[in-house]
């Protein structure tokens, strides 16, 4: 396993992070979830990402069980808060001091740990003063409940404002967790330059564009029955993106991946890790062999000329607009 520093800190994370969004307590049973986590550990992955909203808090419980018995100091554990959870009452959402403090305590209890390595604001909260949010994070760090603080899907100006307040309050904002892939490049124009200037780096989710870049979805063909897109609940947001033009262009990446000695999924992972502001790419899995295959992406080197060809193929269907990074305008209750 290879490691990279997270932001301007001394904290290192594995280049691949295991994430349990849409899988644990949803798509796979507990035995399968434990098997995939153990495959990640066996392959050298030490960074694990979850959130209280995943399966409405149940995913944290499963991850805690899967990591039970693992030396706590030997792993990097991330979780998040913002989205409505539990009974979805008036204060069960957002980044108010009340919700943040209750959320961190709940996450620690569910995962049966004394602290998390990275605690993240899952979205920006327009209804809570940023000063209140950052003060709550500062107190959590001082209490030892989280070692570092990050955000997820914040825009460049929001990251800058949060980093400035964090500095005033005596701690660092070190990371952002955005969506990023060859098909979703909205962070490149503003978020990454701002982050680089502030000592913030990215832990990216959906580096395979919800599996689209794996090549499993073919133009003119029904989605595979065992794919995420086939899942009635979890697959709706994937199916709405699928069209023959996009899938035909993705299929053209196959010979480029082969030239690099990679599967298309490994090629997609290796591409996001080419960006020096990306510290880690999040991968999920429903089967241990998927994790084993993903790990081989760390051995792949994509030459500049091949990366340029891939980007040119996908350019007409890729999304670049920074405005696509959005937070809800109001809390969802």
From TrEMBL:
<dbReference type="GO" id="GO:0016491">
    <property type="term" value="F:oxidoreductase activity"/>
</dbReference>
<comment type="similarity">
    <text>Belongs to the shaker potassium channel beta subunit family.</text>
</comment>
<keyword id="KW-0521">NADP</keyword>
<dbReference type="InterPro" id="IPR036812">
    <property type="entry name" value="NAD(P)_OxRdtase_dom_sf"/>
</dbReference>
<protein>
    <submittedName>
        <fullName>Unannotated protein</fullName>
    </submittedName>
</protein>
<dbReference type="Pfam" id="PF00248">
    <property type="entry name" value="Aldo_ket_red"/>
</dbReference>
<dbReference type="InterPro" id="IPR023210">
    <property type="entry name" value="NADP_OxRdtase_dom"/>
</dbReference>
<feature type="domain" description="NADP-dependent oxidoreductase">
    <location>
        <begin position="16"/>
        <end position="313"/>
    </location>
</feature>
<keyword id="KW-0560">Oxidoreductase</keyword>
<dbReference type="InterPro" id="IPR005399">
    <property type="entry name" value="K_chnl_volt-dep_bsu_KCNAB-rel"/>
</dbReference>
């Amino acid at each position: 396993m290879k490691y990279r520093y997270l932001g301007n800190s001394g904290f290192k994370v594995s280049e691949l992070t295991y994430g349990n969004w849409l899988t644990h307590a949803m798509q796979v049973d507990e035995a399968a979830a434990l098997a995939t986590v153990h495959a990640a550990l066996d392959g050298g992955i030490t960074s694990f990402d979850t959130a209280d909203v995943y399966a409405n808090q149940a995913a944290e419980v499963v991850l805690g069980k899967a990591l039970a018995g693992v030396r706590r100091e030997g792993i990097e554990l991330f979780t998040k808060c913002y989205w409505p959870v539990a009974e979805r009452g008036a204060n069960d959402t957002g980044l108010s001091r009340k919700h943040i403090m209750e959320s961190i305590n709940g996450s620690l209890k569910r995962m049966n740990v004394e602290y998390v390595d990275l605690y993240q604001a899952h979205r920006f909260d327009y209804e809570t003063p940023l000063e209140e949010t950052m003060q709550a994070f500062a107190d959590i760090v001082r209490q030892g409940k989280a070692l570092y603080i990050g955000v997820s899907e914040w825009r460049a100006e929001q990251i800058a404002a949060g980093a400035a307040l964090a500095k005033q309050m005596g701690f660092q904002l070190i990371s952002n967790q955005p969506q990023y892939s060859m098909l979703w490049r909205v962070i490149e124009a503003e978020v990454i330059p701002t982050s680089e200037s502030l000592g913030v780096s990215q832990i990216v989710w959906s580096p395979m564009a919800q599996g689209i870049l794996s090549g499993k979805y073919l133009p003119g063909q029904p989605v595979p029955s065992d794919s995420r897109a086939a899942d009635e609940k979890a697959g709706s947001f994937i199916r709405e993106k699928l069209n023959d033009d996009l899938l035909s262009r993705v299929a053209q990446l196959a010979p480029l991946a082969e030239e690099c000695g990679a599967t298309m999924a490994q090629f997609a992972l290796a591409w996001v890790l080419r960006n020096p502001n990306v510290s880690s790419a999040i991968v999920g899995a429903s089967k241990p062999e998927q994790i084993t295959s993903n790990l081989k992406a760390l051995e792949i080197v994509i030459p500049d000329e091949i990366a340029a060809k891939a980007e040119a193929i996908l350019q007409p269907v890729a999304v670049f607009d920074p405005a696509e990074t959005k937070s809800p305008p109001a809390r969802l209750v």
